[in-house]
Amino acid sequence: MTHLKLMGHGYPPLLSHQIHGVWGSHGVWGSHPSPCLSFTFLRNRICGGNCSSPLAFQLLLHPWHHASLHVHSGGGGGFCLQKLHSLRFSRGRGRCLGGGRIVCKSAQLPSASSATAVMREDRIDKLVDRVETTSVVQDWEEEKEMRMVMKELVDLIVPEALAWASLNGLVVGDKSIKGSGTNVGLGMVHAPLSLFPTSFPQNAFMQAVQLATDFNILIDRVSQDTQFLQEALASTQKVDSFTARLLDIHSQMLEEGLKQEIQLGLHRSDYMLDMATGSLLQVEINTISSSFAGLGSLISKLHRYLIEWYGDAFGLKVENLPENNAMDAFAEALALAWKEFGDTSAVVLMVVHKEEGNMYDQYWLASRLWELYPQKVIRRTLAEVAAEAKLRDRQLFIGEQAVSVVYYRSGYAPADYPSEAEWMARLLLERSSAVKCPSISYHLAGAKKIQQELAKPGVLERFMPDREVARKVRKSFAGLWSLEGEGSAQVIEEAISNPQAFVLKPQREGGGNNIYGADVSTTLRELQKDEEQQGLLAAYILMQRMFPTISSSYLLRNGIWSLEDTVSELGVFGTYLRNGHNVVLNKEAGHLLRTKVSNSDEGGVAAGFAVLDSPYLT
Ligand code: ADP
Ligand code: MG
């Protein structure tokens, strides 16, 4: 019997549970703690008909990964991954442990684009058959030594990264210091980050980038279909008082005939690369308070800097880092909106939280706006707006200061409206002639319930009559289901019996609200009980759970690094500005990768689950 063993240096925790799960039963590895991936693991994937994402091979893409591939065939033998690496992988370095000899001809080895095909079982068998064996030396001492080298290197690079972050404002409020969220300049710490960029397939990245302008248009069109918005959210409105209040403002604007001529969208559409299907699927689109255009640009710069310095040692190239101009693109959109508004004395009003750990991301944007255009930004909470704002003939003033653009970095969660004063402030801002980012209709168009309604057959297509565009956008939709109406009973039953395949999402923004795993069943059962009286199910949508590809990343928080199994979520920013019928701006506007430990369900950076990252295109 032939066994193929993949050994990863520097990956202690890597998939060990799965490996032991597989090999334990075969008794091949015994209790050896070595980080190994096995042929059987690969074959299991393949045998299971799920060959779209050969995990082990992605593992090899990691910059820090010094891997060797051993083929055990009877008396032993091996061939070196270095050869494989030179053919397929632009990252990572192969190492030949134990004097394995490469005898595979290049033609027999996979090409970069055909990893999936190559990992088919029959081909693996062929691959293995052609390997001539020499000897196998399982040099665990050398492996241990490698790990030490890696650790030393990381220890060396981490201070460089931390210095760069501190010097360049890649910082957030330090929660451990009282007042850091309210007092600017007090208690800053580097943003949680990934030391190196994480591999992301170039074609999936480009797919997401190319969707940005389509999603901008979609949001704009949906926002203008008042009947669709009101009807789609009608049942949510009954059971979710927050959505109901937003809809009330929307209705009031319609009743008063107040049209928003200038619409500004600063969006971020988030995606995961689903391992099971190999598809890039949208998690959600943010139309309010899309954060990290500022720090997202900086993490890209940091990664570029580190790769310029240390890239050679790890086979990493700056060419694989995509340009990221998110901060400038957001500043440009705000400046153009100000220009369209046409009052040079007016300023941008940033509506903020009283306490904000992520304030430097916001300050970066304001600072860049000033540098590039120059345009002033003032910051107020909704409570302060309530106290200071007035309308003169619909023109918005904060005190005596005229306002051109209202840019919300709060106002998306119920907690942002602790009293009626905040709701009155929101209404006042909406009534004003200032450009709102977002307007109430853009805010509603970004609701998860709307995402789910658009996924229904034919609905997206109503807004996107161009069939090719609609096809492209729909391709990025994950499974989304309403919990009421036709077909819902069936999907609820399915989710109760197989909760791991779903995420239950309430109509909320800001992270930490979704329901996963066994809680999906429990919550659905409870909601079913309540259904007769309250129709509470309408407050939620069900979504297909995505399982992104697992990478290995050095995560850095509060100055301490750890090597983790991680999954990533790609956000692509989009900027859009329309004045009446004139589309002034519709752009893809940079990106953000957020990476979290693979066993964490939620994903927000500000919410404390993920770290900032950038993609390394492969
Ligand atoms: P929020 O408005 O709270 O940001 P999201 O829809 O973005 O809501 O969900 C929060 C996080 O939960 C995401 O960043 C992602 O990490 C995770 N998540 C959301 N939907 C899914 C899904 N369908 N499959 C897997 N993880 C998901
Ligand atoms: Mg989100």
TrEMBL record:
Keywords: ATP-binding, Glutathione biosynthesis, Ligase, Magnesium, Metal-binding, Nucleotide-binding. Pathway: Sulfur metabolism; glutathione biosynthesis; glutathione from L-cysteine and L-glutamate: step 2/2. The keyword Ligase applies. The keyword Ligase applies. Its cofactor is Mg(2+). Residues 346-445 form the Glutathione synthase substrate-binding domain. Its EC number is 6.3.2.3. It is an enzyme of class 6 (ligase). InterPro entries: Glutathione_synthase, Glutathione_synthase_a-hlx, Glutathione_synthase_C_euk, Glutathione_synthase_N_euk, GSH-S_sub-bd_sf, GSH_synth_subst-bd, PreATP-grasp_dom_sf. Pfam families: GSH_synth_ATP, GSH_synthase. Belongs to the eukaryotic GSH synthase family. NCBIfam families: glut_syn_euk. This is glutathione synthase. It comes from Sphagnum jensenii.
